[in-house]
């Protein structure tokens, strides 16, 4: 049985609002993560808990307060407008938040209905579990349930709730919420809480900031290695733990373009694929500004605090670059990738962009020898391959197979699964969930899921669930 130890609920009351999830009329499980449920000690939970109709013993439901920069514009109060944190489950592997997304309105809903519909819930379940299987730090999906309610967006949709699991749900925007109110005491309490929960070895304010910066550098590099476009990298959607959070209008690149942008609300490409490291750096700068008063206490002056935090922030590009070449070096089977390999990777990406080559299949093709088939300018690829062969490790094939997934949650396949689910057929969603749990090992019967979309199947716009 799960043991709740709700450390966030022990923080001052201005950090959250206690509120229970609103019951729904007819909860029905669509997808359930049995392995994750067992590891958390919640294998006995059913649809009633996952929908919010029953609150497990020891849970302390609450909605967290936070603020954020959304597409660069400042919003001083956001918060959990359609989600409720049940509490934290303590396990041998650590503590994990269990969070109901779509659980009804809260004081932070800003006029919204607090609900979710089945499409975004299935997308987050499928994509987040794939990301975990592919080795990317991420929130997890425990269950997706229908609610028996109708949710109104551009039309009526069947309502749903996602049960999400995370190391925590503390965001850059959580720090910003208190900084905007001049509440330095709360910023300090939050920093101590984050250190205890995520970075216990970090010393001092600068050490904590350094750890959070390094976590983001690791995360974004792994996104880039999968051709993942988050789509809404607002500061309220950046978890300080270094996990991917809030899979709204996210997507994976099919035909490679560094400017790939799918989000329907990102009209100017602020969060395009190639922009993600820059935006992470910008978001971290906003986090650093929140820590200035704490660093000032340690270092004796505001000028010293700003200089020290700036020095930590300026390390991000090099930290990210080191993580990026490690990720792509592994994809190319280079045993000890270094600065001299950056041009090799960039030249391949350049060829892929020029030809619109499929991102996932080109890299997987380096494993099985089919990469050339995805290129239009095969003579140029042959010249690149000769350079690559000189750098590739002789024993690289097995390692490369574990660095280059054979299957990803392709945008058109997710849309197919959502469309089928709207008609009452959850088979496609369940098949995707099964296959995406083993993305490096694709069985013959499932190879159709690795095929890029035909022109008429291409998904060029993705949408938030609100």
TrEMBL record:
<feature type="binding site">
    <location>
        <position position="237"/>
    </location>
    <ligand>
        <name>Mg(2+)</name>
    </ligand>
</feature>
<feature type="binding site">
    <location>
        <position position="101"/>
    </location>
    <ligand>
        <name>ATP</name>
    </ligand>
</feature>
<keyword id="KW-0808">Transferase</keyword>
<keyword id="KW-0464">Manganese</keyword>
<feature type="binding site">
    <location>
        <position position="113"/>
    </location>
    <ligand>
        <name>ATP</name>
    </ligand>
</feature>
<dbReference type="GO" id="GO:0070733">
    <property type="term" value="F:AMPylase activity"/>
</dbReference>
<dbReference type="Pfam" id="PF02696">
    <property type="entry name" value="SelO"/>
</dbReference>
<feature type="binding site">
    <location>
        <position position="82"/>
    </location>
    <ligand>
        <name>ATP</name>
    </ligand>
</feature>
<feature type="binding site">
    <location>
        <position position="171"/>
    </location>
    <ligand>
        <name>ATP</name>
    </ligand>
</feature>
<keyword id="KW-0548">Nucleotidyltransferase</keyword>
<dbReference type="GO" id="GO:0005524">
    <property type="term" value="F:ATP binding"/>
</dbReference>
<feature type="binding site">
    <location>
        <position position="164"/>
    </location>
    <ligand>
        <name>ATP</name>
    </ligand>
</feature>
<feature type="binding site">
    <location>
        <position position="79"/>
    </location>
    <ligand>
        <name>ATP</name>
    </ligand>
</feature>
<feature type="binding site">
    <location>
        <position position="246"/>
    </location>
    <ligand>
        <name>Mg(2+)</name>
    </ligand>
</feature>
<keyword id="KW-0547">Nucleotide-binding</keyword>
<comment type="similarity">
    <text>Belongs to the SELO family.</text>
</comment>
<feature type="active site" description="Proton acceptor">
    <location>
        <position position="236"/>
    </location>
</feature>
<keyword id="KW-0067">ATP-binding</keyword>
<dbReference type="GO" id="GO:0030145">
    <property type="term" value="F:manganese ion binding"/>
</dbReference>
<feature type="binding site">
    <location>
        <position position="246"/>
    </location>
    <ligand>
        <name>ATP</name>
    </ligand>
</feature>
<protein>
    <recommendedName>
        <fullName>Protein nucleotidyltransferase YdiU</fullName>
        <ecNumber>2.7.7.-</ecNumber>
        <ecNumber>2.7.7.108</ecNumber>
    </recommendedName>
</protein>
<dbReference type="InterPro" id="IPR003846">
    <property type="entry name" value="SelO"/>
</dbReference>
<comment type="function">
    <text>Nucleotidyltransferase involved in the post-translational modification of proteins. It can catalyze the addition of adenosine monophosphate (AMP) or uridine monophosphate (UMP) to a protein, resulting in modifications known as AMPylation and UMPylation.</text>
</comment>
<feature type="binding site">
    <location>
        <position position="114"/>
    </location>
    <ligand>
        <name>ATP</name>
    </ligand>
</feature>
<dbReference type="GO" id="GO:0000287">
    <property type="term" value="F:magnesium ion binding"/>
</dbReference>
<feature type="binding site">
    <location>
        <position position="81"/>
    </location>
    <ligand>
        <name>ATP</name>
    </ligand>
</feature>
<keyword id="KW-0460">Magnesium</keyword>
<keyword id="KW-0479">Metal-binding</keyword>
